Structure formats: structure tokens, C-alpha cells
Recover the amino acids of this structure.
């Protein structure tokens, strides 16, 4: 603007009046336009300033750690980090700025993970993954890391922006659920094996009994005669005992651990078990509904064993509904019956139980599944019976089947 | 062997177990009858000789424990030896509490089975002897007249002759006559023995 004014002064003596007037008018107009243009520029700048201000505020307010890394320098220095990043890692602003991001966050051993991330970023692609990190105080935490390149107008990568989310709690919860499920599955597997061996032992002990008795009868009949036969008979008796001993040891090895009885709330137990199976249920596109009579008196029982029963009934129901797309709903219901009994019902909308299978349902080795062992229901029934209840099944009038069991109310709870 | 009069019943759903157990017991001089179901055993006409039952727990329909209950309900007295390939401690406790002689896990040795059977037969014999004695006493009671039976009851309750006479409104001499006839017919040498007979015959409560 100043320069234009100077120009005006220089021109002044050489021009005629009218010409001069015309020129002044023209220049004034020009000035007006330029002024307006300048004003526009200022406004735009002000707008941009506002925008930057809001963006900075927004980034600072985000609960995830946000950071920017200079891409032009080989050691990935952090040039910006928001306050969540500080609280997440435990470092102060001074300690962070200019530091190599990968070294700072103490990645997994061998820098394998950081190298992998760098490779992806160098290719100009964004990275997304879960990583284990260390805080300043050495404490471990799991984080979800997303990093993406920032490009200038020419398309060259100048920076990387990263978002870091603390997922430690989520991970721990997942792990806890996984562990619980694993525990029940383990108990179930051991239980199945024990039941299997026990049944096998019974089946084998029958012929072993006969063999032993035949041999002993023969020994008696030929007593004092046929020494060679006597010797053979003795070998048969000895080997029979050896076989019995093998079975006996196997049974002792797999002896079911003694149930530990404690006061339990059946509703909590069902809710917990349903949560354990939620992923399983959702993956099959089914829905579980809980209709729990609350409050219910406490029962006396073994948590793991009863969870095993509930788990078993729910998975059976899921399998019964597997084939059909329409049958989706699974219902677990609790209610208080007279005579101090609690009733637990697991209703499905599946294919129901064929009448000819009804009587065999709870017997060992009976299964309608191609890969089933036929132990689940018989074990479940023996668990429920050990708790003083009974487990039964029926077909629903409107399709599907209901497995239901009773458990006696814990009478000692008021003492 | 002096087991020839005793009868051993074997109930096991496994034919081979029945056959081999029978063979083993026969070689020990016992008489044996085998059954593969509880129903068959119940349908069998039992003789009055000393007997015992070698019983498997796992049986179709009526299992061993259920048969034990039925036997008790019917008032049959047969000592039971359980045999099982699937036994555990609670089961054996249950069986023994219900009066079983023994609980043998399969396979059992000859010695264990025979020992248990000898014990069972001895019990059965004692029981039979008691039953015989009771039957004998009851037969004697049946020979008493109405009046004599009445006096017998009073004596068994510990009443003196004059008390009975007062209660009956008869002469003490008459009571004495009845009483001596009762002693004679019951073949009792002393009053103590007479009271003992009365108890056995169920005329007075213990």
C-alpha cells in the first residue's frame, strides 16, 4: 500500500489537471479493489487461525494419545504429542519431543514389531495393530496403534500421525473370560475322560470277572491233578489280576476331584456362564434371553460343576438350532418352585428331541451328533443329582426342546 | 463240603459272569441258580433251605439296590452279597446300611466270594433256625384253648395267679390248673421259658 502512495507522489508534477483527476479516480478504484482483496486475505487468515485453534483443542481433548512424527528424519522424532499421550506413557513433554517414537515406547524384544511398522509406513500405507508397550515406570500396557502418513501438496510424505489407545483393561477382561471358559472346558474334558474310563472299566471288568472265575473253577476242579494245567491256570489268574490293576490305576488317576460346595446365587452363575458363551452365541447368529426370577434364595453347590451343566445345556441347544436359520432364540429361565426347589430351564427353538431318543438321552455314550462322545448329558445329570436335584428333558408344544433341572434351596443360609 | 444243603442265587445281566460264577461256586460244592434279571429272580419259587444272593448292581429295569428293597418289602430274608464293576465308596456304604453282607468289586477272587458266602449262609441258617423255632412255638400256641391262651397272656405279662383270678373272677385253683396245662402244652420247663416263648410267638411286645 505504501508503495502505491509513493508512486502517486512521483507522478504528480508531470500530469495535467484533468488527466490527473482521471488518474486519481482510477487509482482510487484500484486501491479500493486491492484493499478489499487484502481484507479478504486477512479474513481468510483469521478463519484459518480459528480452524487451527479448534483442531489443536480437539486433538488435545481426545482421550487417545495422538502424536506426530517427522518423516524426513530417519529416527522418527516426535514433534507433537497431545496430553493424553503424556498421561498414557507417563513421560513429560520435554522428555518426549524430539525422541524416537519407537525407542521411547519400549517395544517388544528384537525391535521386530517396530521394524514391521516402519516397513508398512515406508510403503506409504497406514498401520493398524495391537502392540505391547512400556510406560516410563516400566509398567506394561497393551495399546491399539494406528499410524498414517501425512503428505504435502506434491504427495511427498512429510509426517506420520499416530493414535494410541490404551486397551489394557479390555485385554485383561478378555483374558479373564477366556481363562474361565478354559477352566470349565478343562474340567469338562477331565470329567468326560473320567466318565469314559469308568464306563470302560465297568465293561472290561465283566469279562475279567468271568475269566478269573472260570480259571479258579478249573483250578478247583483239577485240584491235585494235572500240574501243567494248574500252572497255566495260575498264569491266567495272575494276568487277570494284572489287567485289573491297570484299570484300577487308571481310575484312580482320573478320579474326579471332590466338588467344593459353597453358597451360590444361581442367577449370577447363569449370567456369568451366558457371558462366557456370548461370543460363541453371536458367532452362530443366535440370541440368548435370560428370564431370571430375582431375587432367588441361595443354593449350595460347586460353581465349576454347575457352570459345566449350564454350559453343556446351552451348547446342546445351540447345536439343536444350528441347522435352522429361523430358530434363533434360546431362553434360560429360573423360578422358585414349592418345597424349596429352584427350577432352571433351558429352552431352545430347535429341532426338538425325536421320541425314540427320549429314553436314551441321559445314558452313557448315547449321542445324536456325528462327532459326539455321548457323555455331556449323562455327566450333567450326575452332577445335578449330586447336588440333590434332577435333570430332565421335554419337547415344547410350540417346537424345540427344554432341558430343565432342579436344585434344592440352601437351608443353612439364614443361620 | 457241608454246603450241599445251601442254595446260592446269582443275579447278573452278563451271561458269562453268571456261568463262570456258578461254575466256581459249584466247584466249591454249592448249589447255584443263576438269573440275568431281577424279575426272573423274583419269579423263581424259593425253597426254604439256607440261601444267599450274589447280586450285581447294574441290572436292566430293576437294579440291584431296587431288588434289595423289594426283597425287604416282601419280607423275604436272603443275605445279599453285592458284586459290581463300577463300585465306589458311597455305593458300598448304601448297600451295607441296607443290610448287605459284603460289597465285592469285580473281578473278585474265589476266596473273597466264598468267605462272604460262608458268612451269608451261616446268617441264613441262624435265621432259618429262628424261623423254625418260632413256627414250632406258634404250632404249640395253636393247641391252647381260648381260656388257656388268655391265662398264657396274663402270665407272660408277669401277673400273679391271684391277680389273674381276681381279674377273671374265678377261683385261684382254676387258674393254677389252666396254668399247668399251658406249661405242659407249650413244653416249657420254667415260667421264664414260657415268657420267652410268648415273646417269640409275638404274644407280648418286647
Amino acid at each position: 500500500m505504501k508503495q502505491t502512495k509513493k508512486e502517486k507522489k512521483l507522478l504528480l508534477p508531470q500530469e495535467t489537471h484533468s488527466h490527473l483527476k482521471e488518474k486519481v479516480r482510477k487509482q482510487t478504484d484500484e486501491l479500493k479493489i486491492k484493499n478489499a482483496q487484502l481484507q479478504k486475505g486477512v479474513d481468510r487468515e483469521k478463519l484459518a487461525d480459528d480452524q487451527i485453534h479448534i483442531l489443536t483443542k480437539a486433538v488435545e481433548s481426545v482421550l487417545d494419545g495422538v502424536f506426530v512424527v517427522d518423516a524426513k528424519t530417519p529416527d522418527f522424532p516426535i514433534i507433537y504429542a497431545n496430553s493424553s499421550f503424556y498421561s498414557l506413557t507417563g513421560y513429560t513433554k520435554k522428555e518426549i519431543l524430539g525422541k524416537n517414537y519407537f525407542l521411547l515406547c519400549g517395544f517388544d524384544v528384537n525391535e521386530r514389531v517396530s521394524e514391521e511398522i516402519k516397513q508398512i509406513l515406508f510403503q506409504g500405507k497406514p498401520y493398524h495393530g495391537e502392540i505391547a508397550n512400556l510406560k516410563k515406570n516400566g509398567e506394561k500396557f497393551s495399546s491399539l496403534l494406528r499410524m498414517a502418513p501425512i503428505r504435502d501438496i506434491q504427495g511427498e510424505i512429510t509426517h506420520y500421525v499416530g493414535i494410541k489407545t490404551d486397551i489394557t483393561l479390555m485385554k485383561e477382561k478378555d483374558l479373564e473370560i477366556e481363562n474361565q471358559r478354559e477352566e470349565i472346558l478343562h474340567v469338562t474334558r477331565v470329567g468326560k475322560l473320567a466318565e469314559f474310563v469308568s464306563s470302560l472299566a465297568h465293561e472290561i471288568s465283566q469279562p475279567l470277572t468271568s475269566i478269573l472265575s472260570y480259571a479258579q473253577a478249573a483250578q478247583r476242579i483239577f485240584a491235585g491233578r494235572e500240574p501243567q494245567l494248574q500252572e497255566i491256570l495260575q498264569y491266567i489268574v495272575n494276568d487277570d489280576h494284572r489287567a485289573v490293576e491297570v484299570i484300577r490305576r487308571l481310575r484312580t488317576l482320573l478320579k474326579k476331584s471332590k466338588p467344593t460346595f459353597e453358597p451360590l446365587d444361581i442367577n449370577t452363575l447363569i449370567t456369568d456362564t451366558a457371558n462366557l458363551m456370548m461370543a460363541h452365541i453371536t458367532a452362530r447368529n443366535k440370541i440368548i434371553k435370560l428370564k431370571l426370577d430375582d431375587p432367588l434364595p441361595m443354593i449350595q453347590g460347586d460353581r465349576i460343576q454347575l457352570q459345566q451343566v449350564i454350559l453343556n445345556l446351552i451348547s446342546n441347544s445351540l447345536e439343536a438350532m444350528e441347522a435352522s436359520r429361523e430358530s434363533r432364540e434360546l431362553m434360560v429361565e429360573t423360578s422358585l418352585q414349592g418345597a424349596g426347589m429352584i427350577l432352571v430351564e433351558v429352552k431352545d427353538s430347535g429341532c426338538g428331541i425325536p421320541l425314540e431318543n427320549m429314553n436314551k438321552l441321559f445314558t452313557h455314550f448315547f449321542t445324536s451328533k456325528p462327532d459326539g462322545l455321548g457323555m455331556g448329558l449323562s455327566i450333567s445329570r450326575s452332577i445335578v443329582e449330586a447336588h440333590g436335584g434332577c435333570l430332565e428333558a421335554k419337547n415344547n408344544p410350540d417346537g424345540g426342546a427344554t432341558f430343565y433341572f432342579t436344585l434344592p434351596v440352601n437351608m443353612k443360609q439364614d443361620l | 463240603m457241608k454246603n450241599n444243603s445251601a442254595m446260592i442265587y446269582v443275579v447278573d445281566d452278563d451271561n458269562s459272569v453268571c456261568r463262570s460264577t456258578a461254575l466256581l461256586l459249584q466247584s466249591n460244592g454249592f448249589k447255584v441258580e443263576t438269573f440275568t434279571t431281577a424279575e426272573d429272580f423274583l419269579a423263581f419259587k424259593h425253597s426254604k433251605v439256607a440261601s444267599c444272593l450274589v447280586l450285581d448292581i447294574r441290572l436292566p429295569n430293576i437294579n440291584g439296590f431296587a431288588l434289595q428293597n423289594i426283597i425287604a418289602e416282601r419280607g423275604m430274608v436272603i443275605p445279599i452279597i453285592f458284586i459290581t464293576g463300577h463300585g465306589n465308596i458311597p455305593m458300598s456304604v448304601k448297600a451295607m446300611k441296607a443290610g448287605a453282607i459284603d460289597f465285592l468289586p469285580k473281578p473278585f477272587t474265589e476266596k473273597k466270594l466264598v468267605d462272604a458266602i460262608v458268612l451269608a449262609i451261616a446268617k441264613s441258617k441262624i435265621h432259618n433256625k429262628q424261623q423254625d423255632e418260632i413256627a414250632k412255638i406258634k404250632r404249640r400256641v395253636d393247641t391252647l384253648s381260648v381260656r388257656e391262651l388268655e391265662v398264657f397272656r396274663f402270665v407272660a405279662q408277669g401277673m400273679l395267679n391271684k391277680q389273674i383270678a381276681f381279674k377273671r373272677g374265678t377261683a385261684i385253683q382254676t387258674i393254677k390248673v389252666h396254668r399247668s396245662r399251658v406249661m405242659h402244652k407249650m413244653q416249657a420247663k420254667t415260667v421264664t421259658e414260657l415268657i420267652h416263648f410268648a415273646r417269640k410267638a409275638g404274644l407280648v411286645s418286647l
